[in-house]
Amino acid sequence: MGSSDNKSRRSNKLSNKSSTLISERQKKTSIKGTVGEYHAISKLVKAGYMVAKSVDPACPFDIVIVGKDGKIQLLDIKTITYRHSLRGKVLKNKRKICRSPTKEQKRLGIKLLMVDYED
């Protein structure tokens, strides 16, 4: 049986390794997504919706909203992103990247809610 020191060293190695697996770009993208999601939630609450957030990262929707009329909607919040280059060439004007629901999202009636994020 290994000592607790060995277990501690092993877990530190794993945690250090996993933290380096996420690039700075992925961190920035994740932060933008989170900020956009909470911005959308804030707007929906101000508009009178009841909002519940999914806690499962594999869930096909981010939030459930219930309107004043009791209508329930499942929403996947997406941050609007722009293409700055195409096939290695820098574009003069950024192009919006179009998003569409997955097959499962379509089957479940999940709508995409696009939010814009300003740096």
List the helices and strands and how they pair.
Layout: H1 4-20, H2 24-46, E1 50-53, E2 63-66, E3 72-79, E4 82-86, E5 89-96, H3 103-108, E6 111-115
Parallel strand pairs: 3-6
Antiparallel strand pairs: 1-2, 2-3, 4-5
H and E order:
HHEEEEEHE
Q: What is the first-to-last residue Cα distance?
A: 51 Å
Number of β-strand runs: 6
Judged by helices, strands and strand pairing, the structural class is alpha+beta
CATH-assigned fold name: Trna Endonuclease, Chain: A, domain 1
Instruction: Give the overall shape.
Output: elongated
Number of domains: 1
What does this structure look like?
The protein has about 120 residues and is α+β, with helices and mostly antiparallel strands. The chain has one domain (about 5-115): 3-Layer(aba) Sandwich (Trna Endonuclease, Chain: A, domain 1), CATH 3.40.1350. Helices cover about 40% and strands about 30% of the residues. It is built from 3 helices and 6 strands, in the order ααβββββαβ. The strands form 2 sheets. Strands 1-2-3-6 form a 4-stranded mixed sheet. The longest helix has 23 residues, at about 25-45. The relative contact order is 0.13.
